[in-house]
Fold this sequence. Notes:
- 43% of the residues lie in helices and 24% in strands.
- It has 18 helices and 23 strands.
- Helix 10 (298-318) runs parallel beside helix 12 (353-384).
Amino acid sequence: MKKKHLREAAFSLLAAGILTLSFGLGFFRTADLSLSDSLYQERASSDGKIVLVGIDQKALEVYGPYGQWGRGPIAETLEILNASEDCHPAVIGIDILYSGESDPESDRRLAQAAGRYQNVITACAAEFGSALVEYNGDYSLSPHSVTAFNEPYEALKAASGQGHINAMLDKDGILRHHMLYLTLPDGDKVPSLALAAAKAYGGSDVAEPPIDGRGFWYLPFCGTPGDFSMISVSDILSGAVSPDYFDGKIVLIGPYAAGLQDSYLTSADHARPMYGVEYQANAIQALLWGDYKKEVSDGMQLAILFLFLALGFVLFRRCRIRVSVLLWAAFTGGWILLCLGLYRAGRILHVLWVPAGMTVLYAVCLATNYVRAALERQRVTNTFRRYVAPEIVAEILKEGTDALSLGGKLSTIAVLFVDVRGFTPMSEHLPPEKVVEILNQYLTLISDCILKNGGTLDKFVGDAAMAFWGAPLPQEDFVMQAARAARDMAAGSKELSEELLAKYGRTVSFGIGIHLGEAVVGNIGSPRRMDYTAIGDTVNTAARLEANAPGGKIYISRAVADALKGRISVTSLGATVPLKGKKEGFEVLTLDEIL
């Protein structure tokens, strides 16, 4: 038992380890991220403080291709928005990179408009690539090094604040995180456009979110593409929208047309691209709300997963299918609810790891249990075929193990005892190997007759045997089957006796006894050694009948004769045959013929 538990523990740890390793290597990462996005990203109404001013298709139709605009339209937009000292946006973020000088007049105009109320934040951006980096005197190749940094031209940089607009996609091409600071090769840190805008609006009330080792934080999107209010830049330039509408708000100006190639698939919506200004708006809103989420480290989650899988393996192997299904549902459903609850509390877990691991583990355990059950079924089949007829084996397997209840049950059965008469004297005159050969012939005849007639061969005791009918499963005509088995034994013994007489000059015969009544049938014994047998007075009476039956005779009780009345021919011996342990008057009959 101890070895069994140790083996089970080893298997559970091995299975849990293999599955945990597969998750750690990222085999289920794409599916996990997709499911996590579906569960975690919930739409929420923004507080209306952020307004988008889009360079949209309408503006492109009015002013022509964006490449021909120059910087004049955006400068004019800033002039309109900042026309009044008493009525102007709190913050204006420009999600457009103006990194080089172009037309001096438009450059000067844009810088002057940006610096009027010091409420404009302009974009800067880095280019990333592989480069050698030095750390503590050692050099290594970093794949995420800043190889170039593009800033606004000098006049615009001096007149405005800056924030980087780099959007870094995850490996599956989805935008989930926001780079809070951009670290330059000289060590300077540049805040993101969203962080710069949020702090310019909220000041010290804006707390920075927790970031990972690369400076990223998980962005809880509050809106999907199109959720934030957007006004075409052409409507501002034409005067269709009053500047009063933008008073005290955060205004983000940026591309809002598909042809301008500033859009991303995000965790908020895997199907519809989100424009860059919408992404910045979501980041600003999250920073203003301060509802930050921190991803639990993969190492800790892998450790939790390993423990869950090890426990699940043991439970799935030990429990029945119905219970296992409930356990699987409890593990998977409970984990999803836990993930959702912890997300709202600010912690992010991998949603798919435990459900997928448990599902794979459950399928493996189900398959192994099926194979194990099939092997056990085959073992039971092979074992019982030695004792009972094939049709009874089939019934037992069809009914299941409940048909063989431990401890036994009371059944009405027909019990047959048979003994080889004259075998002991003959064995004294023959070599041992011949004795065994002859005994095996007789015992084979006995077992064949029992099994052919649907009986259960209980045991061999020397040159005697015991069998019964009516158990382990009910049989329709079990008393007649016992009588036919006895008849077949008697007939078969005559043929064997003729062979023995011809070979050895000696012969033997069968004495047979049959009784009908109740007996306890089942697995009887100790946990270390048990037999499937029948016990009770019915068994003892059948043994007494056989003990008194002369060679070649079949003794039956009145109970057997009455059960087969009209179907057999009998001769009553009355109470002339005294049976040990039985009161006087017990009637014994000989079975003469089956009609």
